[in-house]
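request received
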Amino acid sequence: MSVRIAVLLALAVVLGSAANAVSPRGLSWSHPLGQGLRASILEAGLHPVDLRQLSDLMREDRVRLLDARPAGEYKIGHLAGAQSHPWRDIEEGKAPLPPAAGPTVVYCSNEFCDDALRLGRLLVRRGDRDVGVLVDGYDGWWNRKWPVEQD
Amino acid sequence: MSRIDRILEGALGLAFLAAGMLKVLDPAEFALSLAKLRLLPAILVGAAAILLPWVEIVSGLAILATRRYREAATFLILGLLAIFTAVILAGMLRGTTGACGCFGSGIAFLNRPEVGLARNLVLIAACSVLVARRRKPTSRSEPASTA
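response:
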């Protein structure tokens, strides 16, 4: 019986590998999600959050917002209700990790910064479960002319 | 082989064939579903997304269309169902409410975790019935040997 199960599994491996190699939709074995920020977010155990999703979450008051940018940028403008927790300060030991809480979304400037991703990784490593990263960042929010706050 | 056996095998085979084919049609979406579950290390997501649908297809075909591999396919399907059910339960316990990706990306209702859990329990029951019936001794027993 176990030999026959092994035969079926081997056949599946051969067929799957061959189909993946010739299919235009074939995946990379090492980076099946691609190479972009979304893939990095998912690989880090976080989940990508879009602007509209975040807007809905904020309207329902169901999310804690963490701004991972430097404090100076936070003072110039930040999303309503966001707390400033610059990733660089945390990494250099100048500031503690924000306390664990419920659903959390972290953001930095835009899709090309990685402060939010890095802060999110630290939170997940600590054991926080529901941590998202705003893919378009503060700039995406600002570009839509959605309301922001200043300190 | 009774009619009940053939019906159960047909249901299991078609379910696994359909599930595998739908995943093969959109492998990137299935990889995303696996990544969102956060149960596999990132390095294994690619291999699982590429190979798992074909394990489903091969086992579905084997139980439908072969005699020699039918029983092995039943055990393979039972093992897969046990793993899938554990994954769905783990997701529900962890508060992950997203789609399970069990039937690719096209049929949202079938991918709801509670629907997936109910469906898997029914299929596990079908597998168990098949295994039990195959193991049951035949009704015409051998005459007892006399000393």
